[in-house]
Amino acid sequence: EGINIQDIAKVFHRDATEIIKKLMMLGVMANQNQALSKDVIELIAMEYGVEPIEKVEVDKSDLELYFEEEIPEEAKKIRPPVVTIMGHVDHGKTTLLDQLRHTSVTADEAGGITQHIGAYQVEVDGNTVTFLDTPGHEAFTTMRARGADVTDIAIIVVAADDGVMPQTVEAINHAKAADVPIIIAVNKIDKPTANPDRVKQELTEYGIIPEDWGGENIFVEISAKMNLNLDELLEMILLVAEVQELKADPNRMAIGSVIEARLDKSQGATATLLVKEGTLKVGDPIVVGNTYGRVRTMTNDKNRRIKTAGPATPVEITGLNDAPQAGDLFVVFEDEKSARAAGEERAMRAQEAQRNSTKKVTLDNLFESLQEGELKSVNVIIKADVQGSVEALAASLQKIEVEGVKVNIVHKAVGAINESDVTLANASGAIVIGFNVRPTVQARQLADQEEVDIRSYRVIYNVIEEIETAMKGMLDPEF
Ligand code: GDP
């Protein structure tokens, strides 16, 4: 195994003994058949005036690699946008998703049963829109943390009788962190107490400004319950999608993400996949997350068996060895053997990774990460007991600059540190700073599990000092 002197002799058209002599003069003793280390090979190459280039074996099990592939412009076709609905609890997310789903049921499907598979599609004037059926920014960010950036457009629902609430602000910041365009659906305008202008006014504070006020954000006033203006909302989605020029290549082996997955008693592992590029077909050998198989059946959101699924189409598949997780990536392979090999390799690595869990951004390793150039800015989430402290902390932190690196505030709000904060911190590599507030029990558990760094303080000066010290690499280790 490995490369020995005989191999090298052949490459350079030299006598093996000559190479052995050269190595001896360099202080390396080697015999003809002994495998050489990379360093020694480099040394010999340099002796012969050759730049050694490393032959990189493509790691087929590295699914992320398939997503980095450049797709030629001419192969790309317009694809449907993928939309996530977010907003504060009770502002009407579920009602909106249900109404939109019903508008999609055409006459010939009227009697047909729609199936909840985690995503569905709506036809609008010959165009298609894909909606993710799990509302909320936490599902959105959890997916993102797992590598799946599937959402193209975020709809943030704000009830006109209630206005901007804590989870509205969370949703805005989660969408902004993902760099996804936001459409505001001002809901419940049928209510006598509805005040859409107040919603607009309140949102300006978070940088969301309506077009008619000179801003960039689209607002649509709707009533999800009364089915008012939903067609206008759909049109706006198509408009934003058009500006984004969402395209994909339908003519290649499919890649994409897992929207939902479960183990079914009768069917075994089922997973809803959303195709990103290519066309998924029944019979395709596939690697999904850390599992693999062959696509046995495909069912769409209208509960129909289908044979192919193109870009931005959600389908529920069977035929996997095991259930993957929401947010996992999938890649179709050319044959079953390589799919199996890659799947098994991934399962093994996942186990290993769990053992030596991955490095997260913490105050203690901040300097190291900055030095290694892994971080361009220090992401933080600020939670405090009163608005004044939130603002004071944000202002002070934004002033910090250590060798060109600044603090970037991903989210700031009044209140206890909650699970949403931890999820967002995990997805955006942020440190959570609590000022006179504590994490909830669930947030603490999630932070422990995901190794998110939460720091609590009672004095603003201490926050500033500790972040600055950590950025300079002078933080005393914590015991
Ligand atoms: P979610 O928690 O954001 O998913 O909110 P839901 O969709 O469950 O809605 C919460 C409540 O608001 C329910 O009682 C809905 O019937 C009601 N609701 C939703 N949309 C509207 C609307 O446009 N007008 C009125 N009057 N009520 C609505």
Can you offer a commentary on this structure?
One of its GO terms (cellular component) is cytosol. With 479 residues, this protein is an alpha/beta fold. It has helices at residues 5-12, 16-25, 38-47, 63-68, 93-104, 137-145, 166-177, 196-204, 230-244, 336-355, 366-371, 387-399, 419-428, 441-450, 460-472; strands at 77-78, 82-87, 119-124, 127-132, 153-159, 182-187, 218-221, 247-248, 255-264, 268-277, 280-281, 285-288, 291-299, 308-309, 314-320, 329-332, 378-384, 401-402, 405-414, 430-435, 454-457. A six-stranded mixed beta sheet has the order 3-4-2-5-6-7, with helices on both faces. The protein has a six-stranded antiparallel β-barrel with strand order 9-10-15-13-12-16. A five-stranded mixed beta sheet has the order 18-19-17-20-21, with helices on both faces. Helix 6 packs parallel to helix 7, helix 6 packs parallel to helix 13 and helix 12 runs parallel beside helix 15. The mean pLDDT is 89. It binds guanosine-5'-diphosphate (GDP). Guanosine-5'-diphosphate is lined by residues 87, 89-95, 135, 187-188, 190-191, 223-226. Guanosine-5'-diphosphate binds next to helix 5.
